[in-house]
Amino acid sequence: MTTEFTSTQAPRRGRGRTDRRRSGTRHLAEHPEVDLVVITVRVPAHAELVEAALAAGKHVYCEWPLARTTDEADTLTKSAHSTGVHHAVGLQARCAPAI
Question: Which CATH number does the domain housing residue 99 bear?
Fold first, then answer.
């Protein structure tokens, strides 16, 4: 799977907005300026992206559900624990007043 990812960085002291285009998940996750990887894509891609972030030693926030199967989620959870990074699965809009 070859995908182009764009990471956007807020302006810093007199500089304009910077866009960085990279191809491949691992390349972006391994970038030294990346501290946290947020996974907000369709569920079938979660495992690959979470694994790439964990392999790079990055903190991970993944949108719910974590994985397609319980076994896949179990594997990702064990990997996150063994890596020693902060990791969370989020439920978007869970506390929204409209729901």
Answer: 3.40.50.720
